[in-house]
Amino acid sequence: MSEAVKDAPAAAPATATPFTDRLRRPAPYLWLTGSVLLLLFPFYLDRFWLQAGLFAMAAAIGAIGLNLLTGSTGQLSMGHAFFLAVGAYGYCILAGESGTENGHALTGLGLPTWLAAVLAVLLAGAAGGLFSPIAGRLSGAYLGIATLALIFIGQHVLFNADSLTGGFNGRPVPPLSLFGLTFDDAEVVVAAVPFQSSEKLWYLGLAALLAGGLFARGVLRGRPGRALNAIRDHRIAAGVMGVPVARYRAGVFVLSSMYAGLAGVLLALVFQRTVPEYFGMILSLEYLAMIVIGGLGSVAGAVIGAAFVSLLPQVLTHYSDSLPLVSAPGTGGIAPGEASRYLYGAAVVAVVLFLPGGLARLKNPGEKKK
Amino acid sequence: MTTFIELLLGGLSIGSVYALIALGFVVIFKATEVVNFAHASLLLAGGYVTAVLHDDIGFWPALAVGIAGAAVVGSAVEFFVMRRYRGSDQSVLAIVTIGVDILLTTELTRRMGTDVLSLGDPWGDDVVTIGGVTLAETRIAAFLVAGLLITVFLLAFRFTSWGVSMRAAAENPQTAALMGIRLGRVSLSAWAVAGALAAVAALFLTVFPTPGLERATSLAALKAFPAAILGGLDSTTGALVGGLVVGVTESLATGYQSDLSFLGRGIGDLAPYLVMVVVLLVRPAGLFGTKELSRV
Amino acid sequence: SEKAKSSDDGAADKNGVKTGEGVTDSKITLGALTDMTGVYASLGKSVTQAQQLWVKETNKAGGICDRQIELAVRDHGYDPQKAIGAYTELEPDVLGFTQFIGSPFVSAVESRIDGQDKGIVLPQAWSANLVGSKYVRVIGATYDVETINLIDFLLDGKRIAKGDKIGHVYFEGDYGENALAGSKHAAKEAGLTVVEQKIKPTDNDMTAQVSALKQAGVKAVVISAGPRQAASLVGVAAATGFKVPVVGNNSAYAPQLLATQAGAALQKDYYIGASTLPIGDAAEGPAKLAEAYAAQYPKDGLDNGVIAGYNAASVFGEALKKACASKDLTREGVDKALLTIKDFGADFGIAHDFTDPAAPSTRQTVVMKPDAKTPGGLKVVRPAEVAPAAESFTLKP
Amino acid sequence: MTAAPAPLTVRDVTVRFAGLTALDAVSFTVEPGSVHAVIGPNGAGKSTTFNVLSGVYRATSGSVHLGATELTGLAPHTIAGLGVARTFQNLALPPHATVAESLMLGRHRLTRAGFVASGLRLPSATREARRHLERVREIAEFIGLDKELDFPAGALPYGKQKLVELGRALCMEPEVLLLDEPIAGMTAEERRRTAAVVAGVRDSLGISIVMVEHDMGVVMRLADAVTVLDFGRRIAGGTPAEVQNDPAVVQAYLGAQE
Amino acid sequence: MATLEIRELSVGYGPVRALRDVSVDVPAGAITAVLGGNGAGKTTLLRAVSRTLGFHRGTGTGTIRFDGRPLEGLRPAQVVAAGVIQVPEGRQVFARMTVADNLRAGALGARGGRKAAAAALRRVHELFPVLADRAHQRAGLLSGGEQQMLAMGRALMAAPRLLLLDEPSLGLAPLMAARIAETVQEINAGGTSVMLVEQNAAIALRLASTAYVLDVGEVALDGPAGELAASDEVRRRYLGVVDETAAEDAARAEGVTRTLSRWSA
Ligand SMILES: Nc1ncnc2c1ncn2[C@@H]1O[C@H](COP(=O)(O)OP(=O)(O)OP(=O)(O)O)[C@@H](O)[C@H]1O
Ligand SMILES: Nc1ncnc2c1ncn2[C@@H]1O[C@H](COP(=O)(O)OP(=O)(O)OP(=O)(O)O)[C@@H](O)[C@H]1O
Ligand SMILES: [Mg+2]
Ligand SMILES: [Mg+2]
């Protein structure tokens, strides 16, 4: 080839190779500072903030899963909350002991809690697999609303299968034990700081989020990710290129359900009791908002979006006394609950408007979505 | 047997209200390919305007203003929000409408407070009895209005240039523009029409036998989702049939819940979704929807 | 770090009053976890405003134990995550909670309350599932007991008799299912049959339910749902010529309903039970409160949430006073004080007894009837009374 | 890879759509290692033939065999797995993915990494990706796309996009390559270059190529055999020269030569 | 006189410069051809005229006047209303609508009344009988060539004053391509000016009176079509006329020596 042809094009966009990608990421010390901060939080923040952070971590895990499905494969799902419920309740049923509570009989298998957690995630995946006749065949709005059916079915089961779910009462969540460490409220003093469930769970949440994030990133950057994107962009062409479309659609649905299941287990551990009300349609919509706000198809986006959507109301309520505009409840004016909804609604609209790639783009505007 | 007929007719009558709501979804979807989650809040807006005005200016003028008001709100949503996203991914747009819905619903419920508002309709709690079966007059009105509006839109979509523009704009905005179609005007009109339809639906959703308009009314509007999907998101006929199917399913499942109690009680809400899932398994684009078309 | 353990309990002020969380030398902070933007917004608003009124009055009268009362309010909008978050946030800084709307959320934190936090929580929910905790104390008759009393009212008036069927339309969830347990018990005692109709809060149209109940031939209907459902049920029943009495729990009515199409029907043959007198009652307690409330919040209507909220706050206040007297304003001290309150709140029609955590504070129910002419829209038709079937009923085995 | 490529046999394939017979008992055989052109007027059924061959459409009757393997009724991805690759007449490229990614998609059938291996970044997956990226570069260079590897395919001009399609199909290392109008929308010079690529593929890889093309010049130059369709029926077949002078073909397709 | 004047037009898509100072005239009643290789900017030029650059996030500077009236600042629909109709690249039929509805959509921008539309429809059916046969089929299911015919027919429904054609013969069989050429000539004879972008330079240069050659966003050559057709450069690059030396040149420049070996791993 002639020399002239080898000249790089004038406006070469970011290269796709992982290596150069790594170079473009913020300097390692930024990561280091961030990690150290995250690791130190339990020593300084009180339970409220830790719990809020844990909610955000669980949401982030769930959002990563949804983003695999909706962002990367173009399969709209409004049934994510259902799989969260499967994870949360699955864990309780598998780990809980049989017995009676408030006069209701509760069935539990009493498995070791770590095993129950793993099985609960698998159970959520299996639930996703059961839905694959639909998930493999439908797309777009039809799939979105078909998955809405899961929410209604789920809530119905949660309320009615008393002996498994505890009905409206919910079930107590057995604390997780891992390597002899139990994530309950029994105090363990670390560096003169009493560690209760939130402090302990914090590290568990971080680990789960990190693992989940890295895994999803690997999937997206690898062969399956390409196949998923191809299905999103051109279903028939994907098939002709050798991608088994229905199997991949079903597969990613299962994977995303497993992420939801993991998020559900973590949420259950934080809540310490499962409540059926939680796993409703609003929750599913919040997850959708997370991935759009953060950026469709990107792992970092899911995390950022989840943090945003899940922390915003908590922060606003917390500071409701000192924020202008927002008035304390019962004094007339805009209640913090309302203010946070205004903000959150406006954020969904505005982020998409001004940052078409989501908040994740802010960090690194040049970077390709992924 | 009379119970069955009573439940059936009751289901058809509430079903026609769902059909009206579903029609609003269908109009937006046909014109912009967007699933409009903000429809419930348009409904709330229309109902609210009617409710606050009827005491002062009478029911019919209030309803007219309510319809116009909801149309204006719909247009405003299009003009200030949706227009800026033209060409974005379908699911992104759907999620944007969720954002809009949150904003509108919060504002409206804040205004409504905790009241139950009456729309001041002239039908009151009058009923007609046909062969031992009683039906609320409001529901008969709803049935007639839904049938009429759906026929009108069916014809409009098929035969007017507005309908052609709308479908063209939905499918390929750029080429539609090359045909001289004013995209802005088309989608603005779609949103305005959807708003107006929502206001009409709001009326029928909140008059007797339901007590009135209040903050939870928008939740009831969600029942139009399975209706729209079941019928086919881009089909006006589908909206009608879907609405009726949902109404009847819900009514029968409720009425016979004692006999169905092995499924757990209170499956009235759930049954339409189950029917929807079964329909989708057989017909992935709903009963009357256009199948996903693709050839290479 | 700040979180590092330092012992701060057991501190005592200059008067020798022991203090703990939520109490300083000049201030007692109480929490209120309410719903002013979600499904229970109308209840939450009245309860909260009434409690704020109580705080104001109490502070004006010099506070309690030389301390001003402060109410920290968090609106969770009936969202579990926010509710639990708000509890976690306020718990370290308050002495206890005068209000916690949403019994599922109360259940969710109950093990924390009983296990470690040990602050008093007065939920605004009347589910029997909440009874039994030393710290979570339900004020008033629980839904099951209330329902038994309501059915007794019907039996009393000879509206139904042995062998009849009664319908029960109830919400999925805590409230409805607890009430159902009551009606089943009452039915068993009186030889009735219950025809169940379970609904969801999104159901606003009771046409199908009425059809089904009519077909089943029920002689009366119990409704354990929201005001809207009650209005629709009563309205449809009246319009279709299904003339049976309808009784509802205290949450199945709101005065705003009188302005709707169902208003007339509601005033005919609909009865509501509650553990307080209606706010519009001529008795001194409600009358004084109604006046003060109307002066403070002229724009807002009066409903029974006002009494419920005010009553709960006063109970807490009474416990604080007793705790102050025994020089112990810690959570433990207040709890001990509450356990000695035996006969409180009779101004609102019913005296409450908090000495036994395993029982509701009362088993009496006032039966009322909607009435457009009284403020608050309710008038008493049967004063506080306990049905024999309710005397010994317990939900928990 | 297989030493002796297999013939592709199309026997009596009929495809009917509601009220329309798009293919009517069409038969032809593609000899191993040859370039076989399918020509005919618009709507004759050429793309439909491709759609049957690649499994996108199901034949109403008739059969397709690759060697001894029956392709009829198999799913598209299974057929792709057997080594049949194709391009699309109307581009089917992901708009935002880079050219490199689009080409890597072509490697799908040759690679193994699944959700678990990719998610855990097992060494096997990483190694595999690296090796195949290398090959993708090679192919891109071969068809003259090496400069565009990092561009989003959607922003390339039409002609380049057609090349990406060709490259993606080549990346599947096919035994049979189906090209639907590979040089439409190119200037004469670009056509020549693309034709050279196609010829180069046949010569260096020895695979069978089935090509739909309206540019008779290119068909004449490249094709070893030609099948002519009209209204879904095969109206002629043979060497390019034979076909070119067939009066039926002239009348239905070519028109009076200039 | 209806003339299109493009002056100093520069267009960019984000960082990509697609056109640089391009000036083109389409005289009234004439056919003007624009040639150029892939990525030369032909489509971009047409987009700039029809004001649809915005759909591709493109921005431009320079002036474009039609009949002396500046087109900048108009919306696409207003350009159509002025009588400028474009046949987009790559067919772009409304796939889910029927063939008949596609044609109706084409008539939306027409200025004539119902009668004119009926006449136009008759004419289109005459030109492309298959469109009449398939009137109720969904356009997305047509074959590639049939879609191209539909795209062309749709534009004719609008009775344009200036027709912008982006590769109208793309994917058409030789017979049909000739038919299109005739049609273009006929339309032109009826008083419609035509700006023709074509890869098939032979046809384009035969039809056009003047031609422009774009190269990487700039006008490389322009002049009467006959003259251009005779020039070596155009003959070699666009007309496919290969003489000995040119072929050798080409072979060297294109690196035909490249080979691909079999993947063996
Ligand atoms: N899925 C389908 N449904 C209905 N008709 C179809 C379908 N696919 C193809 N057809 C019809 O079958 C006929 C053959 O189409 P095909 O695409 O095979 O033609 P072609 O030979 O490739 O033409 P071109 O050269 O124009 O691309 C056309 O008339 C087309 O309209
Ligand atoms: N949407 C777009 N985004 C970014 N760049 C674009 C876009 N469309 C075109 N370009 C770039 O602009 C330049 C001109 O493209 P254009 O499509 O106008 O070429 P063309 O002459 O029509 O080519 P072809 O003959 O292949 O159709 C090319 O370099 C192309 O990559
Ligand atoms: Mg074809
Ligand atoms: Mg072009």
Automatic annotation (TrEMBL), chain B:
<feature type="transmembrane region" description="Helical">
    <location>
        <begin position="270"/>
        <end position="290"/>
    </location>
</feature>
<dbReference type="GO" id="GO:0005886">
    <property type="term" value="C:plasma membrane"/>
</dbReference>
<dbReference type="GO" id="GO:0022857">
    <property type="term" value="F:transmembrane transporter activity"/>
</dbReference>
<feature type="transmembrane region" description="Helical">
    <location>
        <begin position="92"/>
        <end position="109"/>
    </location>
</feature>
<dbReference type="InterPro" id="IPR001851">
    <property type="entry name" value="ABC_transp_permease"/>
</dbReference>
<feature type="transmembrane region" description="Helical">
    <location>
        <begin position="59"/>
        <end position="80"/>
    </location>
</feature>
<protein>
    <submittedName>
        <fullName>Branched-chain amino acid ABC transporter permease</fullName>
    </submittedName>
</protein>
<keyword id="KW-0029">Amino-acid transport</keyword>
<comment type="similarity">
    <text>Belongs to the binding-protein-dependent transport system permease family. LivHM subfamily.</text>
</comment>
<feature type="transmembrane region" description="Helical">
    <location>
        <begin position="140"/>
        <end position="157"/>
    </location>
</feature>
<keyword id="KW-1003">Cell membrane</keyword>
<dbReference type="Pfam" id="PF02653">
    <property type="entry name" value="BPD_transp_2"/>
</dbReference>
<dbReference type="InterPro" id="IPR052157">
    <property type="entry name" value="BCAA_transport_permease"/>
</dbReference>
<feature type="transmembrane region" description="Helical">
    <location>
        <begin position="188"/>
        <end position="208"/>
    </location>
</feature>
<keyword id="KW-0812">Transmembrane</keyword>
<keyword id="KW-0813">Transport</keyword>
<keyword id="KW-0472">Membrane</keyword>
<dbReference type="GO" id="GO:0006865">
    <property type="term" value="P:amino acid transport"/>
</dbReference>
<keyword id="KW-1133">Transmembrane helix</keyword>
<feature type="transmembrane region" description="Helical">
    <location>
        <begin position="6"/>
        <end position="27"/>
    </location>
</feature>
UniProtKB/TrEMBL annotation, chain E:
<dbReference type="GO" id="GO:0016887">
    <property type="term" value="F:ATP hydrolysis activity"/>
</dbReference>
<feature type="domain" description="ABC transporter">
    <location>
        <begin position="4"/>
        <end position="241"/>
    </location>
</feature>
<dbReference type="InterPro" id="IPR003593">
    <property type="entry name" value="AAA+_ATPase"/>
</dbReference>
<protein>
    <submittedName>
        <fullName>ABC transporter ATP-binding protein</fullName>
    </submittedName>
</protein>
<dbReference type="GO" id="GO:0015807">
    <property type="term" value="P:L-amino acid transport"/>
</dbReference>
<keyword id="KW-0067">ATP-binding</keyword>
<dbReference type="InterPro" id="IPR003439">
    <property type="entry name" value="ABC_transporter-like_ATP-bd"/>
</dbReference>
<dbReference type="GO" id="GO:0015658">
    <property type="term" value="F:branched-chain amino acid transmembrane transporter activity"/>
</dbReference>
<keyword id="KW-0813">Transport</keyword>
<comment type="similarity">
    <text>Belongs to the ABC transporter superfamily.</text>
</comment>
<keyword id="KW-0547">Nucleotide-binding</keyword>
<dbReference type="InterPro" id="IPR052156">
    <property type="entry name" value="BCAA_Transport_ATP-bd_LivF"/>
</dbReference>
<dbReference type="GO" id="GO:0005524">
    <property type="term" value="F:ATP binding"/>
</dbReference>
<dbReference type="InterPro" id="IPR027417">
    <property type="entry name" value="P-loop_NTPase"/>
</dbReference>
<dbReference type="InterPro" id="IPR017871">
    <property type="entry name" value="ABC_transporter-like_CS"/>
</dbReference>
<dbReference type="Pfam" id="PF00005">
    <property type="entry name" value="ABC_tran"/>
</dbReference>
<keyword id="KW-0029">Amino-acid transport</keyword>
